[in-house]
Amino acid sequence: MAGKNNLFEKKPPKYQRYLEYEAITEWLDDLGSQKTIKPYMYRFASFLRYSKLSPDQLLEMDGEELKKIVKEYLNKKQKQGRQGMVHGVFNTINSFLNFHNKPIKWKRKEKRKYHVLAMNRVAQQHIPSNEEIYTMVDSARTTRNRAFLLCLWQSGVRNNCIRSWDYALVKDGLETLDEKGYIALKITAKYDSKISSYGFGAYHTFLNEEAGKALKAYIDYRKNIEGWQPKDDDKIFVTEAHEKAKRGKPLGKNVPSYIIKASARAIGLDPENITAHCFRKAFNMNLVKAGIQQNFITHFLGHNPSNSDGAYFDPNDVENLVKQYQKANWSREGVSRLNGIERELKQTKQEKEFLQEQVEQMREEMEEMRRDFQAMIREMKEIKELKKEKQ
Fold it and tell me: For labelling alongside 17, which of 80, 157, 178, 194 has CA 20 to 30 A away?
């Protein structure tokens, strides 16, 4: 479909105007791979827009002044929790400057801060507890975000998988949610491409009642408020932009990170240390705590099933799978009950400490009374002896 006002015409990338600079084209020719060029240019264009400089002006700058602007930009992205982007931008800018023989002199401490970022992030990962996850859910700003966080945790799926969920995956489970108290999810390579390399066709995981109800609330919101009439291949989780043209699109790979970090920041957790993969680890930890056998855990995580014991494990026995899954504590009520027990234990400990203080105080008072009594006896003896002497 052609035409002057064609809405479907593909727009040029945001970095297009920078390709007119010879300094850019020479650098890109040296990079070679198209897979490398595109992400490098998106990162570099973002920095150039921030600095309001052209590539040529960048190369004309004094080294220390240039370093100052780069650090300002990197620090800003770090404060926003954009750690992965900081690592990529650092590499991209240095690649461009090194190619043009204008390297920035970084101190070792600065390199560790910006460049050895992925390693540091892994070392500092925070695996959220059930209580922290529910607190994050309560702090989430939209129905979509609340549903997303609960579904990500209670299903244990990968980032790329949950972004691929469509209406066909959940529609039957939504209809039987009130009756069964869970939604069964059959994850095929259509949703999780990684399982193709493992050589098996599908795995099962589930959403417990809390996540199921949150998902239903989000879908009802899309239907009733946004007028969505779902088709089987429609994506479940979509964008929520103010502009109508930007709404309803599949989530980009970085959106889960924004949702998680915003909710983590809202409850006082360090957003730099919590990622979508941390929720997957929290899912795994919940299963392990419940004493579920490893072959079931391997299946729920969509890992290579080669080590699973076929004599005791049937990956197609959904009834047995859900029975194992529900051994774990997924409910808000279960978290509240555990928190109640913890509070009672804490209160009992405080009462014990108070009683110990009272007993200690009574001992001191009794010791003082004993000393006073002994002093009184000595005085009485002295009085008696004085009386005898007078007689």
Answer: 80
